[in-house]
Design a protein that fits this description.
117 residues, alpha+beta, 16% strand
Length: 117
Amino acid sequence: YPLCALAVSALDLGCHSVTKSLKLGQVDDFTSFTSAVIDATAFEKITGFIDRAKKSSECTILAGGNYDRSKGYFVEPTIILTTNPRYETMTTEIFGPVLTVYVYPEANFEETLRHAS
């Protein structure tokens, strides 16, 4: 699917620059775009999604994917590309800075709409 390849290339090029420009910091620093997640439980859940995506043959981390708990529970804004519209990060609400993208084949537009419902 040439359109899919083009969309994936565009995503890959733009994601790194956008996420790298987002400042992570303390909640009282109003120049920060995002801060640490609320607690250790949330941190473990969110980073579990990221780690499983890193290991999955159905996913590519386009941007982010890093995290650090040395001074708070910081999770870098992460963008995941999946080839599976039913991958767990597409069907589970994640209360953290994780976005999953599925680029559907243009010829399968109607089928893709059925997945959404």
